[in-house]
Structures are given as structure tokens and as C-alpha cells.
Specification:
By secondary structure, the protein is mainly α. The protein has helices at 2-11, 39-46, 51-89, 111-128, 141-148, 188-195, 198-230, and strands at residues 162-170, 181-186.
């Protein structure tokens, strides 16, 4: 993993990506779990730091990555439970049904039996006789818990209200690559999460300061114009 991170860091055209905590991890591959967490370690390594200091940064990166992975997993589970499963449940009375199955990959030593074999078996049953698929809640304890916790009423993705964020949207003049883009969010939950995100707060601060600079500039321009007219 460390070799891969180092190689990807060398391949990036923006060599400031690993410039410590202030590096930009908001675009492309740099958004992946691991880049931000090991930023200080890779920056120190590129600066030829060795010994105990480098090892401390490496261990801190490992702990930060574990924490980020757990947080990401929790968000995934919440999305599956609150968005995907209700949508699947809403198809059970229709001609084309979406049947979700949850396989337990907690223990990698049992991957072949609990994930690979069960997954292949379910796929074969689906191909042979879709009407006699196994009950999804009986596959594992995790499946029973996750599927039981799903919202009863479908929350169709087609019914989600779309929210536009003018603060994070950029014109071609503002965008680094010169290509304008708009930020849209699907549903109230996703929009609320976006409003709390670090990137949104950063953009909000930037917009506020930009507005203050524009106001000060207009005020100074008006004062200069009035002075000239008075003279």
C-alpha cells in the first residue's frame, strides 16, 4: 500500500498534494481514503526524513486511515439502510423486483464459504428460478439485522428534491481548469451533509471574503470618484 501511495504521489502533476495538512485533497484520486491520512508521512519521506520521526508519521497515518475507513463504512451502511433498501422494497409488488442480499465479509478467513460460495449460489438460483430465491434475512445475522432495520416506506430516488449549491458551484473564470461546473445534491439528507462538509465551509468562507473585498473596492472607488468631482 505504501509503495502504491508513493507511486501515485509521484505521478500526480500537482506536487503540492502532500504538502502536509494544508494540501488540497478535494479533487481526483486525492479524495481517496489514504491520500489525506498519509499526506504528512509522504511529504516527510520526500524530504528525506528518516528514523523515528518518519515512523511516527507512518503509524499516525495508519490510525487515521482506520478511522476514516470506519466513518466511510458507517455512511455506506446508513445510505444502504435509508435509501437503497427502501427503494428495493418498493419494487416487491412490481413485475421487475430488486432483491438485495447481504453477505458477511467480516472474517476474511471465511470469505470463500460465506461470500464467494454463497454469492455464486444465489446468482445461480436467480438464473435458474428467480421465483424461488432464498430469504435474504436468513443468509447471516448481519443480513437479518441490516434488512430488518430498513425503512418500511419506500423513499424513491425519483422523488428526491434536488438542491443547488451556488457557493460551491464555479464559473469558468473561477475553476482551475477553466471549465465551469455546478454542484447539485439529491435529497435533503445529502444536501444537509454537504452543508456540513469541510469543502463547503471552506468555499463559504472564501465567498464571504470575496464579497467583503468587492464591497471595499466599490467603496474606495466611490470615494475616489467623489473626491475627484469635488476637486
Amino acid at each position: 500500500m505504501f509503495d502504491e501511495l508513493s507511486q501515485l504521489g509521484r505521478d500526480l502533476t500537482d506536487q503540492t498534494a502532500f504538502a502536509g495538512p494544508s494540501g488540497d485533497f478535494s479533487t481526483g484520486l486525492k479524495q481517496a481514503i489514504g491520500f489525506r491520512e498519509f499526506g504528512p508521512y509522504l511529504a516527510a519521506k520526500s524530504a528525506s526524513t528518516t528514523g523515528e520521526d518518519l515512523e511516527l508519521l507512518r503509524q499516525q497515518g495508519i490510525e487515521d486511515m482506520k478511522l476514516s475507513t470506519r466513518r466511510y463504512a458507517k455512511r455506506q451502511i446508513a445510505w444502504i439502510r435509508n435509501k437503497l433498501l427502501p427503494e428495493c422494497n418498493g419494487t416487491l409488488t412490481k413485475s421487475v423486483k430488486a432483491r438485495p442480499y447481504v453477505l458477511d465479509a467480516t472474517d476474511l478467513n471465511t470469505w470463500d464459504s460465506l461470500v464467494k460460495a454463497q454469492g455464486v449460489d444465489i446468482a445461480r438460483q436467480f438464473i435458474d428460478d428467480e421465483q424461488h430465491l432464498p430469504n435474504a434475512t436468513t443468509i447471516s445475522e448481519i443480513a437479518a439485522k441490516l434488512l430488518a432495520d430498513a425503512k418500511e416506506k419506500p423513499n424513491s430516488v425519483l422523488a428526491w428534491k434536488r438542491f443547488h449549491c451556488p457557493i460551491c458551484s464555479k464559473t469558468s473564470e473561477e475553476a482551475r481548469d477553466g471549465v465551469a461546473y455546478e454542484v447539485w445534491l439529491n435529497g435533503q439528507d445529502e444536501y444537509n451533509q454537504h452543508l456540513q462538509s469541510r469543502q463547503h465551509r471552506k468555499n463559504r468562507t472564501y465567498r464571504k471574503r470575496q464579497a467583503e473585498r468587492d464591497t471595499n473596492y466599490l467603496g474606495n472607488t466611490k470615494s475616489s470618484s467623489e473626491s475627484e468631482n469635488g476637486d
